[in-house]
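Example 3.2
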Amino acid sequence: MKKLFLAEFIGTFFLIFFGLSALIIRDYSSNFGSVGAAFVFGTTIGAATYFFGRISGAHFNPALSFASFITAEISFKDFLIYVISQILAGFGACFLLLIIFSERFYTASIPSDMSISMFLENDISFPTLILILESIFSFFLALVYFMSIKNNKIRNRIVPIFIGGTYFTACMILLNINGFGINPLRVVIPALFKWNWTNVAYYVTANFIGALIGGITATYFKK
């Protein structure tokens, strides 16, 4: 249980810390674009999954943990351990980022709708866009994840490459549309620090719905 808690804490901490650091640098450096930020997210989740997949299953995401509980991969007690460790890690990472980057943390870490002009002519509202895209990518991430686990563990050493690649793809696309969510912690904790809850509910709802449907779909295929 201690190893599970620590594995989820470390993996989540570095995912949030490295990922949001990349987004902050992207906004203030002309040499570090969306590809660089997506690469950081992808390699971080891939490395964390490689090292901790056999210990905790490498969730690093409350939506994945919730889907794991609903699909009976983990118990309710373990679900609480996962979520508590992830939340604490997210707070720790964001607090450290705030110390390092100060106000830049606020302006760069919260998803925005500044780059959705390509969709305005289709009369798609930003909340609707969030719900659609975040649900789709959360579903695909959960599908890849749940098709790869056995007894809530990742033992195939190739799997982290696919999970990292999924994060990279999602980040590359979503960063330039809705700011990239996928993980509720990536949206909720920066919003909490700034106390800006605009559209947060849409991100979180889409992440949980997509992950749950992805988990249920994978469970169906594995029967």
